[in-house]
Amino acid sequence: MNTVTVNALRGVSMLALLAPMTAIAQTQPAPAAAAPAPAAEAANALTEIVVTARRRDESVQDVPAVVNAITAEALQKMNIREFTEVSTLAPGLTLTTNANGVGGNAQVRGVNFDVNASGNNPTVEFYLNDAPITAGVVLQQAYDLGQIEVLRGPQGTLRGRASPSGSITVVTKKPDLYRFGGNVNTTINDIGTSNINGAVNIPVFEGVASLRIAGLYDESDANRVHTIDSSIPAQKPSSRTKSGRVSALVTPVDWLRLEGTFQTIDHDLTVYDQVESFSVVNPSAPASPNLIKAKDRRSSQASPRLIKQKFDIYNWRSEISLKGQQLIYQGQHYTQDLDSAGTSDVGNLFPTTNTYQYTVLRAKSTSHELRLQNQERVLGIFDYALGYFDNKNDTPTTLNSPTILRLPLAFGGGVAQVIQTPIARSGKSHEKSIFGNLTAHVGDATQISGGLRHIDYTDTGKLTVGGALLTSDIQADKKWIYTASAQHNFTSDLMVYASTGSSYRPGLSAIGNFNLVQSARERSFVTLPSESSKSYEAGVKSTLFDKKMRLNASVFHQKFANYPYRTPGSGVYYVNTVSVSPLTQQVGLFNFVAAVPVEVNGIEGEIAYDLTPDWNVGLMGGYALGKVKNGTIPCNDLNSDGKPDVVTSAPTLAQLQAAVGADNLAQCNVTQRSSFQPPFTATLQSEYTRPISGNLQGFARGLLNFNGKSRGDPANSFDDVQSYSLVNIFAGVRDTDRNWELTVYAKNLFNTTKVLTRTAPLSTSYQQLPGAIIGGVPTITGRPSAVSYTSTYTGITTTPAQEFGLNIRVAFGSR
To answer: For residues 721 and 708, what is the distance between their CA atoms, to the nearest angstrom?
Structure first.
């Protein structure tokens, strides 16, 4: 996009920010009626938000829990294209995708989650059309969605699987049985994005059967990080997503409802890992050959990361409603194919040599849930839900572990050989659960609710390295969890509640440590026992000023036993045996996991207010501080003082062996934060609309995200993040019937660039062949030795790039 166009977009975006203030300053003519009629006041009330947090439709203000509901309209208004951007509308929620493409992560309420550490057992569970699904499927391009609900606190007695911190439910738009219609939505911007998506709704037999067909095509410059290495032809960072979805709805009789959805996602990604010169934050560090700062969005690596993902999702549902009761069956099957390639030479010491680690994942999952619940209250008092859940996961993974063998320096020091060790990991899990929940309505103002779930879980896994069986794990658990709550409505506008709940997650075997000779300490930081937790919460929900304002607040406390804490940043150095005969060792680096006690305390609040029929504002915020309390974790401790070291370079094999002995790695006893998110976050939204003519309306809206200061790895004094804010603004015009809308926008308006995570200096481990020129003949003089090379760059992630764009949406009939 040329400079003139970019500047024009910036100018219009600034007008969008100023529009509400201009509107307030202007003096408007007095209306004919001096005071609004009661009907007008009712029309100015906040739009009621209906959620299904308790498996039945009800107002969000009636649910005794914190629920952030994000409607299809909100997604459209804020131009949410990638699902990870949903976190901008739910403070305290962090959504990220793994660099290797294996999956995604959701974090909330003061604890982290890493799919490489916890696999199929997240702290926050994802649901697609009421069935549990891996985050990697959901954290793609978002299109044609009906509603997203972010539920906070322990889950499991009402839906799917147990999760300790919350769940995120995603509902795609359902077919309309009566109206034909559709929409097309297009976005272009100044940073290389072209996104087009749309849907068409076709009533096949009016009132009986209908189809909805939706699709998306998206191209972009991915993370916009380019390499500075010119040793080989560079590839441009790029991302391409193609996706399609077909949904069917059939209601042959009034007591039977049948739904089915098929969706396919094809995603190709070429990216470079972003770096920054270590000397930028550590002036005593060696200078880089090329100074790189965060705002440069550059990488020191010559080889990009290549990822290809393919998902196929089949989702089906039936509902039978008879005599005030409803029997629901929900099923789902999905497959996940991943081919990923990333360089193991992260220090970029050998830029012209292929040192890729290739990962191939062929996963599949099937779930079934049968649930019986009431539609009409039993005896005028009770609501209930009883169910059975069955879930099978199969996640076979193969990869290679490259070991670089370097020629003697006397021979030029090039790569003699890259030795590839094949690795295979098989994993199958099966969960069978029964669950129930009962709510008693005591009079018109009080509700008491309780639920139980019995979990029967088995997991088998094998790890082979170089064809030899390294580990074989079988886990079998049977656990009970519970939830309970009480709420009382003092008036129709004021409700208070208190709740408690427990949760469970199976133990895990972290993937990534392929040491052929593992110590007992090392194994204790790879294979972990199951986790349990207990949570307590109290809150108040209220509406004020004739329902023009919503004011909610809650406090919570949660205590975990055996929480899987994964070491942040680059990880922990350990003695890695890559060959037994002959014995060959080198310095390895891995994010080991530890089972630790964690306590989390927090507070969350929300206020939404319709100032006028044309102007609304909403503010949400939260504070959550999680701490590891006297936990034993893997660490870098070369001086053996029992405290994690501040690491600025990789140790030699001899240094590491002297410090850790036969244990292969060090451990430390710590009390520190359990999360690397900012404890305090807040989101401010506002929209102002103004009639332009009889059928034309102008609008301006803004979104501000505030993130308080945070600390990353306690052993890394260079990765702390100061507080910052990101501002997105939107302005445009639309038809009053919403048949079309034209929006210009700016995301990260003030081009704020913050380093959010930082590793230790990047390093490459290799085997160095000794040699010399003897009698004019190059001669190998002994066995190879382990060497680590430390670069002058650190790996970083940053805030999203500034973006100016244009969005056009056209719709007709059923949207």
So the answer is: 8
